[in-house]
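pasting for ref
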Amino acid sequence: MEDILKVESIAQYNALKEIKTRHPLITSFDSGTAKPLSSGKFSFEFYAIFLKGVNCGELKYGRNTYDYEEGTMVFMGPGQVVGIKSAKDYNPKGFALLFHPDFIKGTPLASKIHTYSFFSYDLNEALHLSEKEQQIITELFLKIDYELDQNIDKHSKTIITSNIELLLNYCERFYDRQFITRENLNQGIVSKFEGLLNDYFQSENPQKYGLPSVGYFANHLNLSANYFGDLVKKETGKSAMDHIHLKLIDVAKDRIFDTDSSISQIAYELGFKYPQHFNRMFKKNTGHTPNEYRNLN
């Protein structure tokens, strides 16, 4: 098994890239001025944002290979493992921003960093920018870089974290645009999701494996759970878990009409370990317990 190099500090990362450490908890640089990382597997203990201006090799994440092309952004959260396969003799252009979770502690960004779900997307779910979008993101990288070149004062952290938050908010908007422009592809994924849902509850999987998770369907569609969840929500207005629960209740209603099966038996067949959990979910969604629903019909 290939060893994973754990990069725990910004200074350690800067040493690998042969760039100066201007702040112990954050770094920003032009990729063209830094040494490329050698091929291998890495785990970063900080947030990382990359904007690339030219094709400069491949990144591997799980089963997927991502061609790191022009005008793309990728995001990594702390603890993620990424495999890097560097192309020979390339001169990358673009920008990188990496910051340790400790840098944003005590700031408004710290309380909402978890809402930027793209930090948990797979690398093949990168953000593809238009020229105008690249310009906006580049300007924000440059503002952050400028602040790191100044003497640190009481305003530095506020200004830098505000610009990071603005950059992430723009990326959230651009991802929304990307979901819309890929509507046909996304509708195909939602359709496949519905098919997988039907197949799951028509099989013996619920009795074998229990209730399905969002991750189960994302895995079958070769997507990360967060990207899949965001895609379904933007396409349908309902979360992926809402779809699972609605399908579950729909199947349950049909089976409740079979008076030869007890409510407990139906609950087990649908993947519930405890019938009371099924009763609670059914009542929450229909306003009636399974027995009340059977009697009403």
